[in-house]
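Quick start: read one record
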Amino acid sequence: MLLADDPQVIDIFEARNGPEAVALITDTRPDIVLLDVQMPQMDGFQVIDTIGAEHMPAVVFVTAYDSYALKAFEVNAIDYLLKPVNEDRFRSALERAKSRLQTEPSGASSGRMLSLLETIANPRRYLKRLAVRSSGKTTFVNVDDVDWMEAAENYVELHLGEKRHLLHVPLTTLEGSLDPNSFARIHRSVIVNLHRIRSLTPLTHGQYTVLLESGAQLQSGRSYSEVVRALTVNPF
């Protein structure tokens, strides 16, 4: 319905599952594909693998996927729409896809696609525990035991219930070593353990109150609204 409102869109084809998507893309050679990650019989990644990344049109993924996959899309400069699809976000993604059709060198899109598939297929290994040095001794903290983390200048303060530990590392550096299936940055100064979230309450301007099992209340930042909103959607 959103595509039908765009005067530049001439033909729209719809597939009910992965095999139909492969057939339609192969037969009609569309300019842009809005590809659902999770489909019956064959998922979006298998569709690309079957057709071949080098033969794929411009792709915008549509997904209710977890934070790991979203990070993979971002790292490889692949655009995506998060379910439920926001109309403004849809317009923005479509315009970017159109722009790439006109300005992107041949093969650049397929290169990003191959990198994405490689990232999804070979996930990184992430930190399991942290070594915290204080008062002349080193204490080991299991990452899964951390409720949330807060930037404190050049340090990160780890919150484990009533306990606090200071780690001498920038928050952004630590973020890159954490499993995004378990941790998400919800504010420029805060990373939260997703398994410790009890509830999310929407506020104004895309912000949320995040209540943890420990009773701690955090507030997400405006620029992280899509990250937090993704947590409210079941992946089915």
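The domain at 129-231 is CATH 2.40.50.1020 (OB fold (Dihydrolipoamide Acetyltransferase, E2P)).
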